[in-house]
Amino acid sequence: MEENEVLVKVENLSKKFCIDLKTSLWYGVKDLCYNVFGNKNENSEELRPKEFWAVKDISFELRRGECLGLIGHNGAGKSTLLKILNGLINPDEGKVTIKGRVCALIELGAGFNPILTGRENIYNNGAVLGFSKNEIDSKVEEIIDFAEIREFIDMPVQNYSSGMKVRLGFAVAAQMEPDVLIIDEVLAVGDLGFRVKCMNRITDLLSSSAVIFVSHSMAQVTTVSNEAMLLEHGRIDSYSKNVGDVVEKYFFKFQTSDEQLIGDGSIKLTEFSFIENSKKVVETYIRNGEDLKIEFEIKADEDVENLKFRIGFFNIEYKLLAEVDSDTVNFIGKVVDGKLIVSVVIKGLYLRYGKYSIHLHVINLDTNKKLLRQSNIGHFIVKPTISIGADFLLPSEWS
Amino acid sequence: MELKTTVYQKTNNKKIGKLLLESLSDMYSSRFLAKQLAVRDIKAQYRQSFLGILWAFITPLSTALVWIILSKSGTVQLTDTGVPYPVFVFSGTLLWSIIIESINAPMVNTNGARGILSKINFPKEALILSGVYKLISNSFVKIIVLLVFLIVYGVGFHASALFFPLAFLGIIFFGTTLGLFITPLGMLYNDVGKIISMGLSFLMYATPVVYAIPKTGLLKTLMEMNPLTPLLLTTRNLLFGQNLDYLTYYFGVFTVCIPLFFLGLVFYRISIPIIVERMSA
User: Fold this and answer.
1) What is the DSSP letter of A399?
2) What is the helix (H) or strand (E) element at residue B213, kind and residue range?
3) What does the alpha-carbon distance between residue B185 and residue B263 come to, in Å, rounded to a whole number?
4) Which residues of A, range 132-151, sit inside 8 Å of B by Cβ?
5) Which of A317, B247, B264, B270 would be B180's cystine partner, CB 3.0–4.6 Å?
6) Contacts of B36 (CB under 8 A, 6+ apart)
7) Which CATH architecture has domain A2-101+177-253?
8) What is the mean pLDDT of residues A239-266?
9) A133-165, pLDDT tens digit by residue?
10) Which of residues 31-70 of B touch A (CB under 8 A)?
11) Overall average pLDDT of the A201-222 stretch
12) CB A34 within 8 A of CB A2
């Protein structure tokens, strides 16, 4: 069964990193000596001062045709893991066994020299990626066509736009026929047309190779991967064939930035909560299409009338996806005795699966002045009834 | 087709023989990459320069000029060198510049590849090989200028000059061997490179570069101990058709150098992952 052979086998992989550069360099010298003269008394299980585990006890297996989505916050150890898998650095513990040709789309255009022309740099980049001269000779036209930069191919690369450089880099890398493909967020560049082209090429490779895919775009991970691993402080937090579960755990962990406050200080938001079964809660989960109930309290030193409210919903990539406005139903707020409690029901929130944060604007209708703009005042998670690709699932009637 | 299996784990139990074999086979298989890198660097070097090839011998020429003036003006009294002094001093500074470049080449090339070292897995031996290619190509111009000097000053050609190319490759081999051992530490600490360049500028005066070995004294002892002396003298004297006084020491140096070179390759191979780990963010 050639189709199902294990191409990547990772066993209890661990890697130490050092916080301090000077110490790190010194440990480098020591490691050099240990490796050359043999290791006598150093215990690799223990951390030396100022060290931490960048990757700890990672194990997994990947077969041809499988795609592992690697997710986690910045600094969770994803890139370190990729570097070990790519053989750039050696693990401190554990073992990696890889079968076949490895291709790492970590940096595009490696080996480019800015002064040389695009054509010359195809050869440089190709050679670094392990192509032979004949291979490049036979593919050079194909590469130029794929990159769509024929008119500029004999111009020095330093005059290329960054997008053109990426195109050329990807066009060369796309010629590889790897058994194991490692992708680290290189796809988020270039213009739309080219991104589609990249994704198509990668989809071609998905079926014929074992893929390890790092991305911060959960949409990409859920579309491409058929298993996912969530890393947290170098350790496996969650690893499952059910990509949705893992992505959900990632959302829960996501630390949204602190509340940001803009306003003239005349009014203050003192309380914010969701109403779940008539009880006040700080965080809530709703199913796709359910109502979201919010209650918040505003205090002011002086009584204010004619207040308008707007609530915005931001997704995890900080994109404003939807808003509700009190003006649409002619609701006008009024602070009496220094206090106002507002409750809102958002009817049928048909948002996509994910974590959302809430932003509040308060505007004085008389002066049209923003009295308060506060972000990240609350978070909720929408759990899907079905998985969708777009941001919204619109309510519909079918017959 | 059987797929190649690669294993990555903590490497302190690998046999030297196996590592050396891997290193040599990687060096062989990376010929194209090495050539490509060398061509890339040479092209870039000349394309962004007006004087281009002149730079290859301007520095040794200017050092030589200083010494020619010093000796002509009588500021320094130098012993007889057997050939016209300008030829002696220019050949000295030129060969010396080749020695220095060869010693520095592995470190310069590995440093220059920092960007790709931390991103792409390629046979690192290609960096060493491309360094050798670049040295040969850069030195080629220097040697032609030197030959012109020989004709102009009437030293002429001697049969022994046929061995000169071999001796020249010997210099590159010697320098690269030293460079292999310096590189790993030099990649970690900038100090190493600075110490080496400072040390070499002192060492020049303990090597018969701009003057011949004195008949007596401390300098004579120092010069005769210095392994660069037989290296430089033999190469130069082959060209001038003079006596090869230090031939035993010369072959002695290479007898030590050959095993050291292979050891250096192994050392370099072991050290690269450690360096990459420490230098990349």
Assistant:
1) -
2) none
3) 16
4) 132-133
5) B264
6) A123, A124, A127, B130
7) 3-Layer(aba) Sandwich (3.40)
8) 76
9) 999 999 999 999 988 889 999 999 999 988 888
10) 32-33, 36-37, 40-41, 43-44, 47-48
11) 84
12) no
Nearest CA to A148 out of A115, A113, A193, A204 is that of A193
How many CB atoms within 10 Å of residue A255?
A: 6
Residues whose CB falls within 8 Å of the CB of residue B51, separated by 6 or more in sequence, listed in order: B58
A353 Cβ neighbours under 8 A, 6+ residues apart: A244, A247, A248, A288, A382, A383, A384, A387, A388
Cβ-contact A264, A360 below 8 angstroms: no
**Reported ipTM exceeds the 0.90 cut:** no
Model pLDDT, residue A265: 78
Residue A43 clears pLDDT 90, i.e. is over it = no
- The DSSP element (H or E) to which A375 belongs, if any, is strand A369-383
φ/ψ of A306, rounded to 5, equals 55, 55
- The two tokens of residue B148 are 């012109």
User: If you classify domain A260-383 with CATH, what class do you get?
Assistant: mainly beta
Residue of A nearest to B3 (CA): A100
Nearest to A276 by CA among A262, A294, A260, A302: A294
Q: Which two tokens stand for residue B141?
A: 């111009």
Residue B186 touches chain A, beta carbons under 8 Å: no
CA distance A107 to A185: 9
* Surface of B (102-121) touching A: CB under 8 A: 115-121
Give φ, ψ of B227 to 5 degrees.
-65, -15
Q: Domain-by-domain residue ranges, chain A?
A: 2-101+177-253, 260-383
**Which residue in the set B5, B36, B274 is minimally distant from A123, CB to CB?**
B36
- Give the model confidence (pLDDT) of A51-101 as tens digits: 889 999 999 999 988 999 999 888 888 988 999 999 888 898 889 999 988
- B256 near B177, Cβ under 8 Å? no
Q: What is the mean pLDDT of residues B138-145?
A: 88
Nearest in space to B238 (alpha carbons), one of B173, B143, B153:
B143
CB contact under 8 A, B274 and A31: yes
Contact (CB<8Å) B116/A106: no
Determine which helix (DSSP H) or strand (DSSP E) holds A313, and give its type and residue range. strand A307-314
Burial A361-383 (b: 16+ CB within 10 A, else e): bbbbeeeeeebbbbbbbbbbbbe
Task: At B185, list the tokens.
Answer: 């530490």
Residues in chain B: 281
Contacts of A145 (CB under 8 A, 6+ apart): none
What local confidence, expressed as pLDDT, does residue A242 receive?
Answer: 85
User: What is d(CA B164, CA B154) in angstroms, rounded to the nearest whole number?
Assistant: 18
Of the candidates A354, A345, A348, A347, the residue with the CA atom closest to the CA atom of residue A390: A354
